[in-house]
Write a structure and sequence with these properties.
This protein is globular. The chain has a five-stranded mixed beta sheet with strand order 2-1-3-10-4, sandwiched between helices. Helix 1 crosses helix 8, helix 9 packs across helix 10 and helix 11 (about 280-290) crosses helix 12. Helix content is about 40%, strand content about 20%. Helix 4 (about 130-140) links the parallel strand 6 (about 120-125) and strand 7. The chain has helices at about 15-25, 45-55, 70-75, 130-140, 160-170, 180-185, 210-215, 225-240, 245-255, 260-265, 280-290, 305-310, and strands spanning about 5-10, 30-35, 65, 85-95, 100-105, 120-125, 155, 175-180, 190-200, 205-210. By secondary structure, it is of the alpha/beta class.
Length: about 325
């Protein structure tokens, strides 16, 4: 007998808490499939999130919850196969992701963000979140010019541990990684924080496979999708009203300290209505990915048009209550 349970791919870290609550307290009928990154938390690497993209295209999951820029990059590349395999259908986290800017513990010559222009930036991979955020920083600081790159080198280091080692041995000058994942290494004195920068978009989106959406136009979407949104909304509301339980879960099941979990709670806002996406958020993300060279500009095609093709609008209207 074929198991028809909805499969949701997710990242097993602090951001997954409302999803956990949706299943634990409200009976979310789904198989939750974790996609851990191994050497580093997946929230910091667009490349790691592309594993989710591969999984949904391969039919291994039906719904994915991941970083906005990963889903956008997956649908916006010129070599995107077929119909892309999925569409962006919901918003999970409304707030941007805070990326800490780090250097070595004993690098006194690096005093501030201003001193990073023309330096060596450490990245996990070309096209990764750490790479894209280098361009976000350069764009914000006015370092982007048509005549040259904002940094002397992009040093590819694969994972978080290598990045930390590189800024200490001098093979890279700085790198960017999610704040709360980095914080324990500030506390231990291994690396030093010199600033922060936020994604210019809300950080997490929900996608559904085109098979689940009923093909092009999403005219016959699977009704179970709206049930998932309903349970997620309940999980988010429970998360907001039970902060102590959230801290206990994060600090015991997800390897964060209770203190850091409580601090993170003050910085994050989940969507109270997870179904639906603001097309302007996607357009802004496309613009930055084009500046970073992750996506190519298409002659005569506006970012708004490209963004529209990535979304499914009016999904809730198919299932009036």
């Amino acid at each position: 007998m074929v198991d028809s349970t909805i499969r949701i791919g997710f990242v097993p870290e602090h951001f997954s808490t409302p999803l956990h609550f949706a299943q634990k307290h409200f009976g979310l009928d789904a198989k939750l499939i974790p996609f851990p990154s191994g050497t580093g938390h997946m929230s910091c690497g667009l490349t790691y999130h592309l594993i989710l993209v591969t999984a949904i295209r391969a039919g291994e999951i039906d719904i994915g919850i991941g970083l906005t820029e990963a889903w956008v990059a997956g649908l916006g590349k010129e070599d995107t196969p077929g119909d892309g395999g999925y569409r962006i259908v919901g918003t999970y986290v409304e707030t941007p992701l805070c990326w800490a800017i780090s250097t070595g513990a004993k690098r006194p010559e690096i005093t501030s963000v201003d001193s990073l222009k023309g330096s060596k930036i450490g990245i996990s991979r070309v096209g990764s979140g750490s790479y894209v955020m280098g361009y976000v920083l350069a764009d914000k600081e006015g370092w982007l010019t048509p005549s040259g790159a904002p940094y002397s080198d992009f040093v590819v280091l694969q994972n978080f541990a290598n990045l930390r080692n590189a800024v200490n041995d001098g093979s890279a000058d700085f790198f960017m990684w999610e704040h709360f994942t980095s914080k324990r290494y500030y506390d231990s004195g291994e690396i030093r924080r010199i600033g922060e920068i936020y994604t210019p978009w809300s950080s997490w989106k929900i996608v559904a496979s085109t098979a689940l959406l009923g093909g092009k136009g999403a005219e016959k979407a699977d009704p179970r999708l709206m049930e998932v949104f309903k349970k997620l909304d309940q999980g988010v509301k429970y998360f907001e009203n039970h902060q102590d339980e959230a801290v206990e879960y994060i600090s015991t099941a997800l390897d964060y300290s209770a203190e850091d979990a409580r601090e993170w709670l003050t910085t994050v806002r989940f969507s109270s209505k997870t179904e639906g996406v603001d097309v302007n958020v996607i357009s802004k993300c496309i613009n930055i990915l084009q500046k970073a060279g992750v996506l190519q500009e298409k002659d005569g095609v506006s970012t708004e048009t490209i963004a529209d093709e990535m979304l499914v609008k009016g999904l809730a209207a198919q299932f009036p209550e």
